Backbone:
């Protein structure tokens, strides 16, 4: 019988319907969008950061790809490939899929040693939090933990609920919005 967070997360059990997976992708995308608005207001009001400073925090990783491939941001096809296809594929594999595999192995080992009396999520949460912190840090600075680190937790939730490809799709949609939608929104704010 599942209790508490185990029933909410359904760790290791995916919704195998297309509609269920799309619902999870949409839910995470909307929550990520709301979180971004909250962070933007917080940074603007409390930290007195101008809107361009907030944008640079949100798009910090794109700047890294621009350094790897000079002229990438001026070429829409390269920018789309790196930010909407390449980055989500490898980041989800490295920061979610791999660590969750480790969590499952630890869970299996711990469950064997405790005769199956261990809550299934006990190994998941430290891995989820740790990988999200590293994900945020690698996107820029400590403040990026509050932005991309939290996004990583939403992407992890999608992976737990719907699998790797749904997490990649959510991440791709988010990066697409940052790449092509955010400049339009910020132009309207300025």
Residues:
């Amino acid at each position: 019988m599942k209790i508490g967070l185990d029933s909410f997360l359904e760790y290791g059990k995916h919704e195998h319907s297309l509609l269920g997976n799309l619902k999870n992708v949409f839910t995470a995308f909307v929550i990520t969008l709301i979180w971004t608005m909250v962070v933007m207001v917080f940074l603007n009001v409390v930290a007195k950061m101008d809107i361009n400073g907030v944008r640079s925090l949100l798009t910090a990783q794109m700047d890294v790809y621009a350094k790897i491939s000079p002229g990438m941001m001026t070429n829409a096809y390269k920018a789309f490939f790196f930010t909407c296809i390449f980055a989500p594929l490898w980041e989800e594999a490295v920061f979610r899929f791999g660590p969750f595999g480790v969590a499952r192995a630890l869970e299996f080992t711990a469950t064997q040693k405790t005769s199956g009396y261990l809550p299934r999520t006990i190994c998941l949460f430290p891995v989820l939090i740790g990988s999200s912190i590293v994900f945020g840090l690698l996107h820029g600075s400590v403040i990026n933990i509050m932005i991309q680190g939290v996004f990583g937790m939403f992407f992890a939730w999608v992976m737990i609920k719907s699998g790797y490809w749904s997490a990649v799709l959510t991440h791709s949609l988010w990066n697409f919005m940052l790449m092509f939608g955010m400049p339009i929104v910020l132009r309207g704010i300025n």
About this structure: The longest helix spans residues 76-113. The two ends are 53 Å apart (CA to CA). The chain has one domain: 16-183. The chain has a mean pLDDT of 79.
